[in-house]
C-alpha cells in the first residue's frame, strides 16, 4: 500500500457522521426553545394590555412565537426521531401526509409573517399615524397577518390531501415520499417560488430599503427629536434580528433549490456534501424564540429584576446581635 492509499483509508476510517451531532444540537435547542417560548407567552398573557393591545409591533412576534412553539412540539420531535433511528416513523400514509402538511405550513407561516412584518415596519416607523384609523389598521395590519396564518394551511391542505393522483405504496425503508402534487412540475415550481422564494426576496429587499430609509431620516432628525430616533432604531433592530434568521436559514437552501430546479437537477448526487446545507432550515423556527426574547426589552428587564430579587434574598444573612457582658 502506498502513501496515498494509506492516507485515504485513514480519512475513511475516522470520518465523522454529522447526524448524531445534528441530533444533539437540535435536541438541546428544542428544549431551550420550548422553555423560552413559554416564558414569552406567559409574559404576554399577564401583560396583554401593554404588550399586545398598545403595541402593534409585538403582534407578529406573538404569532411567530406560537408558530415556533407548535414547530418544536408537533413537528421537530419526529425529525429528531428520524435522525435517531434512521427512518421516518410511523410509516403510514396518514402520518406522512399530516407531517408534510404541518411542517410546510409552519415554515411558510413563519416566512410570510416575517415578510409581512418587513413591509409593515415601514408603516410603523414612518406612517404610524395611519394605523390610528380603524379601517386602515384593519386593512394594512390585521388582514395581512391573518392571511399569513390561514393561506399556507389552506394551500397545503388542498395540495396534499385533495390533489387527484394515485397514492404511492408506502413499502419504503427510510423516509416519507413527497406528496403527489410534487410530481406536477408546474404546480411544484409555483409552490416553491410563491411560498419560499417570494417571501425570502421580500424580506431581503424590504429590510435593505428600511435600513436606507432609517439612516436617511436620522440625518434629518434634530437633537430635540431624540425620542423619534430612538423609536426608529428600536423597531428597525427588532425586525433586522428576526429577518436575518430567515435570510441565513432559508437563503442557502433557496439558492441550492433554484440551482437544482433550473440548472443542475442532480446537484445532490454530484455534490453530496451540499445536502448538509438543508440542515439550516431546522433552526429557523427553533431559534425564533431566542431572538424574540432579546427584541423585547420589557421582558428582559422583568427577568433581570426577578433575578436580582432572588439573588438578593440568597445573599442576605441574618445579623447576629451580641449582648454586652456585665
TrEMBL record:
<dbReference type="InterPro" id="IPR017452">
    <property type="entry name" value="GPCR_Rhodpsn_7TM"/>
</dbReference>
<feature type="transmembrane region" description="Helical">
    <location>
        <begin position="237"/>
        <end position="262"/>
    </location>
</feature>
<keyword id="KW-1133">Transmembrane helix</keyword>
<dbReference type="GO" id="GO:0016020">
    <property type="term" value="C:membrane"/>
</dbReference>
<feature type="transmembrane region" description="Helical">
    <location>
        <begin position="20"/>
        <end position="46"/>
    </location>
</feature>
<dbReference type="GO" id="GO:0004930">
    <property type="term" value="F:G protein-coupled receptor activity"/>
</dbReference>
<feature type="transmembrane region" description="Helical">
    <location>
        <begin position="140"/>
        <end position="163"/>
    </location>
</feature>
<feature type="transmembrane region" description="Helical">
    <location>
        <begin position="197"/>
        <end position="216"/>
    </location>
</feature>
<protein>
    <recommendedName>
        <fullName>G-protein coupled receptors family 1 profile domain-containing protein</fullName>
    </recommendedName>
</protein>
<keyword id="KW-0472">Membrane</keyword>
<dbReference type="InterPro" id="IPR000276">
    <property type="entry name" value="GPCR_Rhodpsn"/>
</dbReference>
<feature type="transmembrane region" description="Helical">
    <location>
        <begin position="98"/>
        <end position="119"/>
    </location>
</feature>
<feature type="domain" description="G-protein coupled receptors family 1 profile">
    <location>
        <begin position="37"/>
        <end position="296"/>
    </location>
</feature>
<feature type="transmembrane region" description="Helical">
    <location>
        <begin position="274"/>
        <end position="296"/>
    </location>
</feature>
<keyword id="KW-0812">Transmembrane</keyword>
<feature type="transmembrane region" description="Helical">
    <location>
        <begin position="58"/>
        <end position="78"/>
    </location>
</feature>
<dbReference type="Pfam" id="PF00001">
    <property type="entry name" value="7tm_1"/>
</dbReference>
